[in-house]
Amino acid sequence: MLAGTVGPAHALASGPPTAAELKEAREQFTRGRQLEDEGKFAEALALFQRVGQVKMTPQVRFHIALCLEHTGKLADALETFRLAAREAKPTAPTVVTEANEHIEALEKRVPTLTVVVTDGSPGDVITLEGRPVTAGSANRVDPGAYTLVLRRDGEVTREQHVTVEEGQTLRVELATTADVGKPRPGPSSTQRTLGFAALGLSAASLVTMGVFIGLRADRLSDVEAACPTLTGCDRSVAPLAEEGATYATLVNVFAGLSGAAAAAGVALLLTAPATSTPSAGLRLQPVLAPGVGFVSIEGRF
């Protein structure tokens, strides 16, 4: 943990804070740092926000951003880290360095959602969880589920539910016509289909193996009936023995095929990406980015 210095004060209340208010704010800041160390980021966030109402410094804003990040508010955390870095430039270079590291990491983690109306009209209004968004613009959002609504001339013409995952770049195509934006199978759907096909092949191979086990047993019975001692047998027994050997080989072949197909099927199903099932008028094109580790900073209020 790195120690920072106090940045310029930004009093949010009317007039400068009193000595008593500053003393209480320092105590709350210290308690907030303790809660961070305990992993209680939601409680720490509430304390840091109260501290910021008394006196906002780059260090306080940094810890607000850190708590937002750890409580899943990645988009808000990214913007707050950026603001902390800008405020810290004159007096707190350590805060700038640490904030920039978080900014670089969060830019890879924060999902991006772009909404396009395929048969758009100048009067269309798109809202994301009730907040207006511009068609074609990339919107940084937190991971989670969202409701998109398309209104035309004041009437709701399309409502879609989408789920955005961390690191995803998602493009959603909305349309007011039923034949546009129909679901299209993606790589995940194909992989799952192949997985189930492999399991089906495994089951079929098991059945075939069972058939050849039965045939081999029949031929063995025929050989034992014609030559009980299995030594010095007549040449007429040879074809029966050869058939039995062939069936034994086929049993081994289908046993191996069944095992390999089962293993491949399970692997395909377990590694298939999670799917989002779009309804009519929606097409999703996910692109995943890797997660990144984080560092923290300790400031002084």
UniProtKB/TrEMBL annotation:
Source taxon at top rank: Bacteria
Residues that span the membrane, as ranges: 194-215, 247-270
UniProt xrefs under SUPFAM superfamilies: TPR-like (SSF48452)
Alphabetical keyword list: Membrane, Transmembrane, Transmembrane helix
Gene3D superfamilies per UniProt: Tetratricopeptide repeat domain
Protein name from the UniProt record: Tetratricopeptide repeat protein
